[in-house]
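It is worth pausing here to work through a concrete case rather than discussing structure prediction in the abstract. The textbook approach is simple: state the sequence, then state the predicted structure, then interpret. We follow exactly that order.
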Amino acid sequence: MVQRILERGEIEALDHTSLPRLRLPELGGVFAPRAARLRELAAGKVAGIPVNPELSGYLLLMADMVSAQAETLATLNTSDAGLPDAATMERAQQHAMPPLAAFAPRGPAWRGILTTLLDKLDSVAARQIEISIVIAALRTMPVEELEALADAVIAQRIDGLNAAQAPFIAAALQVLWTYQASHLQQRQVPVLETGTLCPVCGSHPVASVIRIGGQSQGYRYLQCSLCSSEWHMVRVKCSCCEQNGKISYQGLGYLDAADDTAKGAAAPGNKANDPGKFARAETCDDCHGYRKIFNQEHDYNVEPLADDLASLTLDVLVCEAGYLRASVNPLLWLGNLA
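Step two, the predicted structure:
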């Protein structure tokens, strides 16, 4: 009997109950938990990610931003968000394209979201003059410049991008795309030819996470930097070039045993809840890129985007070792850290 090698997506299609290939965002399950996580990280309460005081202030600022995202999201309805029509959805299915393609022409809805978001950050601007300057500039920016800035953010073009303005633009775009993604059904999202881009919107992942519990137990998911969807990718496979022959994992030299105990870490020998195994960089010697991977087994409250943002020390060390970060964190726009 001749055996056929299954193509991408066919194994997952055999039994959708055993392996959820896609985890779509829930309206109340993205920004509020992310803001809470950022505040925990800033306070040094996440054992696997030590945060220096200089970064804590920025994490708190981004926590305020993400809280404003949650409040803004709650004001949206389907007419505001401009959900794709039936023809767009059908075309996506026929051509295995993301139904909410980030690079497709977008309407003005995101600019209204940006205005609401900036309004909700007025209290932050009132106590931080630097933020008030950025917000004032965004409020008066011509539409053409705003759209160009949004194009650069979606394309992750760092060169020439205003690093202070970009997180606000990214935050508004995230609200829109997360709202839209939350209204999809899994059957409406085709399997793409590449596993390195979000099947919902075509954006890059920000990080990956090994999930626990239920049907997702032990599986690795990439989290989209734009729409917050998560999609399955097998472990020990590069999320940049999809090769698997030269994968390594780099971690931070962690705190001593006394500090572990003080933070409530598991006793030695316990395979779960080990802070030293929570946050790692998955490096590839084929493409010399890397992306972080977080293990929920070692911290149940993992939030990939927030944890990626807070573990900047790991970025510095891995970049110094000669690897390039595969994609940006939408809340922090930096070049190569090496």
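Step three, interpretation. Confidence is low (pLDDT under 50) at residues 1-7, 11-16, 254-268. The chain has 13 helices and eight strands.
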